[in-house]
Amino acid sequence: MAAHSKQQLLKRIATLISENKELREKYRLLSESYQQTMEELDQYKQTKHSNDTASGQVRFNMATLLFVDIKGFSNIMSNALNVERQMDKLDHYLLRFSDILQKYRLVKIQSIGDNLIYAGGILEKNITNPVTVTLAALEMLHVMETEGENDTWCVNIGIHTGAVTASAAEKKHTVFRIKGDTINIVSRIVSLGGKNTVTISATTYELVKELFDCVYTGIIPVKYQDHLELFRVNGIRPQFAADTAHRLPNDVFRTRFLLYRFGDLQEQVLDLLEKKLPKYLYYHNVKHTVDVVTESELIGWAEGLDDHRLLLLKTAALFHDTGHIVSYADHEERSTDIAREMLLEHGYVPEEINEICRIIMATKLPPKPADLLESIICDADLDYLGRTDFIPVSNSLYEELKTQNKMSSLNEWNKMQLKFINSHQYFTATGRKLREVKKQEQITRIKQLILPE
Predict the structure, then answer these.
(1) Are the C-beta atoms of 324 and 311 separated by less than 8 Å?
(2) What is the rounded distance in angstroms from the CA atom of residue 291 to the CA atom of residue 240?
(3) Cα distances (angstroms) measured from residue 94 to each of 144, 155, 159, 176
(4) Into how many domains does the chain fold?
(5) Quick one: pLDDT band at residue 51, thresholds 50, 70, 90?
(6) What is the mean pLDDT of residues 319-346?
(7) The pTM is what?
(8) Which domain holds residue 360?
(9) By CB atoms within 10 Å of each CB, which of 2, 84, 337, 414 scores lowest?
(10) Which of the listed residues 249, 284, 315 is the one where a domain comes to its end?
């Protein structure tokens, strides 16, 4: 490889490592915040199930409120002959809105007058609720613009992301009461919007600006704050839109969104592993899964994968050892079972899930990858063979096998490792460049550890 190309590759890898560190820190902070929220929610549920009649309240540190102001009542009252027809049309809009809000898993907030108020990020743990709420708002506009017969009805939508305190307003928990500055702010925002517009706060803007076309519209004074900047959402960015009005997302948007949502999925899977993996898994533990996800992303990025293939690869890496909570011997097959069960709930389609399961099965030893994605996950799974911490990692695998009576002595294990590493090859160009030299050093080191018989 030319010196310039090597330099470029190293620069890209350094950039990715830096970005990964930043993402891990953000992930840690968000995880702590949501952990606190979930603990409060568990306490809330226990309170509701007890005989205590006092109303429980839960604080959510990151929720996004959708405030819909429906306008048009004054128009129909001035034309009595069309009242029934126009009210039927309004009922149609409300039914369509209900479907949209259910699609994006938003919960209903107790209404203020004729306004509709919904929230994302309540009861469902996620960090993508600003995006889903904005998508829901644009889809509501799409309904008004494509299914409307005249200008009688229109909507003005305001969105704000912040902390809220919620309590159940009905016994079935289908409607919630919201307290806090967030509800007051979103009420102010919607009061300044126009016909069929979506106006968002600066807080929400920072969380959605990569996916949506937003325009700064001004500032409003806010109690206990200097001011609040507002933005109008013109639509989805053109490269992510499926329609000319830029209201509906395309497949590129969907992939980007699932990559954003990967942090939520990763937290759920790692939590599952932390709780249910057998204690004797000293090697196939949470750390190994995190290592394989990180290394798969690094190699995939260096090998030039597009966003969609990178998503499939990272997801396969995340699930590839989950089957260990069920069985050691055939954990790859059990991993695919768990992936199929969980991924539909996270927005993956059957074709993607089948592809992810195929990639998972490629980690079954001995590795025989059939394409680039399988090659990458095989290299990531056995990345430790070419790392400086090879010996301690190898010893942890030995302890894991010894605990299950699958290995009798460390000397026998070292002989097996030497044989395995001598026959092993990295399948990707990136894997060979990053690890092959070190792997040869490991051969020398492990030979020195083998005792003569």
Answers:
(1) no
(2) 31
(3) 11, 11, 19, 19
(4) 2
(5) very low
(6) 95
(7) 0.79
(8) 255-449
(9) 2
(10) 249
Which whole number is the average pLDDT over 331-336?
97
Residues near 164 by beta carbon (within 8 Å), at least 6 away in sequence: 59, 60, 63, 65, 119, 122, 178, 179, 180, 182, 183
Q: Is residue 302 part of a domain?
A: yes
DSSP string, 81-117: GGHHHHHHHHHHHHHHHHHHHHHTTPEEE---TT-EE
Q: CA–CA distance from 438 to each of 8, 299, 323, 353, 420 (Å)?
A: 21, 17, 30, 35, 15
* b/e per residue 80-110 (b: at least 16 CB within 10 A): eeeeeebeebbeebeebbeebbeebebbbbe
Side-chain half-sphere of 242: how many Cα atoms within 13 Å? Answer: 11
Q: CA Rg, the chain, in Å?
A: 27
Residues 203 and 333 occupy one common structural domain: no
Residue 54 in this model has a pLDDT that exceeds 70: no
Listed in order, strand segments (DSSP E) in 401-441 are none
Q: Which of 99-103, 220-224, 432-436 has the highest mean pLDDT?
A: 99-103
Residues 221, 274 within the same domain: no
Among candidate residues 297, 317, 281, 296, the one with its CA nearest the CA of residue 379: 296
